[in-house]
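Appendix B. Raw example, untouched.
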Amino acid sequence: MRELHDELERLEVFIPPAERNNALFGPVTKKIIMNLQRSRFSEQRVTGIVDQATANLISSEVRFRK
C-alpha cells in the first residue's frame, strides 16, 4: 500500500494522513483510483480496484512525469 501511495503522491495527488500513515486503502484512495480509471478506461472498468491494468496506468503516469 505504501508503494501505491508513493506513486499517487508523485502524481501530485493528496492522500489523507490517516490513510497514508496507516497504509490503508481507504475511501479517499479508492476515489482517487476510480477517478484515474474514469479518465482512461471505459465506464465498465471503473471499479476502484487496482488490477493489473490500473497498476500499469499508474506506473506509466509516474514514468511520464519524471
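End of appendix B.
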